[in-house]
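User: Teach me something about this protein's shape.
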Amino acid sequence: MTSRATSRVVARVSGRVQGVGFRFFVQSRAVALRLTGSVRNQPDGSVRVDAEGPRDDLQSLLDQLREGPPAARVERVDVEWHPPRGSKEFLIEAG
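Assistant: First, the predicted structure itself:
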């Protein structure tokens, strides 16, 4: 059974994920899945992804985060599930 109820996931992606087009990769995947939220570089070199949408689609995004774009080297993806906040689009935030 698939779930279409809106959920929210916050993921911290660690590894070589800055300076390799990771935020653009995440945004393109999120938009293709019709998810909303944001992606932002963190001062510690990780990338924070905050996405909302159907849980199945969020799981698909998480699977893609574990792969990343060709130049990235994903070492770890930490995931937390939260109640949705009602974001309306998927943005790349400065960071």
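Now, about its shape. The chain has two helices and five strands. The chain has one domain: 6-93. If you'd like, I can walk through any region in more detail.
User: That's plenty for now, thanks!
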